[in-house]
Amino acid sequence: MENLNRKYERASKRVKEYMSFYRHVKIFIVINGLLYLLKTGALNRLMPEGFPTEPYYFDWVISNILIWGIILVVHGLYTFRYKIPFLKHWEERQIQKYMEQEEEDSSKFK
Questions:
Q1: Integer distance in angstroms from the first to the last C-alpha of the chain?
Q2: Residue pair 75/21 in contact by the 8 Å Cβ criterion
Q3: In whole angstroms, what is the distance from residue 5 CA to residue 2 CA?
Q4: Which CA distances in Å does 17 have to 9, 35, 53?
Q5: Are 37 and 43 in contact (CB under 8 A)?
Q6: Where are the alpha helices (DSSP H) in the chain?
Q7: In 3-state terms, what secondary structure has residue 53?
Q8: How far apart (Å, rounded) are the C-alpha atoms in residues 59 and 55?
Q9: Which residue in 27, 25, 15, 26 sits closest to 82, CA to CA?
Q10: Is this prediction's pTM over 0.85?
Q11: CB within 8 Å of 87: residues ≥ 6 apart
């Protein structure tokens, strides 16, 4: 029963990680889409009087998209780490290494 509970908890944690990543993607698309539309001037007629609509006010938008995009890629790599073969094999090798190291350490003290 305890094993089933642990499996459920791990599965629940993975689902929450996926949900968090997809939420991050949605927010990225909405916010950066709006910022890009502001930069291109597509939303100028909808802006209130006195809102700065000159393109040079939004020179930072492309940098924001690139930096946030890199962060999103890192988040995706972390979220899908079990589905990327390179990362999975690396993780398995590290686990094996630490298990062997722990076994050596315990045999030294006997």
A1: 35
A2: yes
A3: 5
A4: 12, 27, 38
A5: yes
A6: 2-40, 61-79, 85-108
A7: coil
A8: 7
A9: 15
A10: no
A11: 77, 81
Over residues 1-51, the pLDDT tens digits come to 678 888 888 889 889 999 999 999 999 999 999 999 988 888 888 888 888
Task: List the structure tokens of 43.
Answer: 């939303």
Q: How far, in Å, CA of 38 to CA of 34, rounded?
A: 6
Q: Which residue is associated with the tokens 């998209």?
A: 65
- Only one residue has tokens 């962060």, namely 71
Residue 17: name the closest of 80, 59, 72, 63 by CA.
Answer: 80
Cα 16 from Cα 77, distance rounded (Å): 15
Residue that has been written with the tokens 């062997």 in this structure: 100
Q: Which two tokens stand for residue 76?
A: 């995706």
Residues in the chain: 110
